[in-house]
Amino acid sequence: MSRNLETGTRQRSICSSGHTNADDMLRAADERLKSFPYYRSVLSKDWKPDMGSHVILAACRDYQSAMEILGTKGYRGVLTKTLVSVLRSDAWKKETTYVELTGLLNQSYSQ
To answer: In the chain, pLDDT over 70 holds for what percent of residues?
Structure first.
């Protein structure tokens, strides 16, 4: 664990949860999804996820470290804290798009 970022933030490493790997995850997904009509196996060599209907919100890229801050109940992830704050705020509307949400996240974190 290191505390060299900003006051009240820290970086830590978390051990993996058991002896699973990506192959185990894909085999489990294939087993659960194979009964669906038009299912294309995630085990096929040319499989790629359809990202047309998905949005990924991530605290960091694979070569970065996510930050945590000290709150009243211990350390919390900055992204999670900011996301919950934005979703509870008056800035969040039912019609808010994901592009607008990322703008609200960036604006809220920098304040």
So the answer is: 80
**Tokens 């350390």 appear where?**
75
What strands lie across the sheet with 9-10, from one edge to the other?
9-10, 68-71, 74-77
Retrieve residue 110's tokens: 């920098």
Label the pairing between strands 68-71 and 9-10: antiparallel
Give whole-number Cα distances, 24 to 11, 18, 45, 51, 59, in Å: 28, 11, 16, 22, 25
pLDDT at 4: 46
In a domain, 57, yes or no: yes
Nearest to 42 by CA among 63, 24, 56, 20: 24
The answer as to whether 55 is a domain residue is yes
- Residue 81, domain member (yes or no): yes
Tens of pLDDT, residue by residue over 33-56, are 999 998 989 999 998 887 787 888
Domain span at residue 58 reads 9-16+49-110
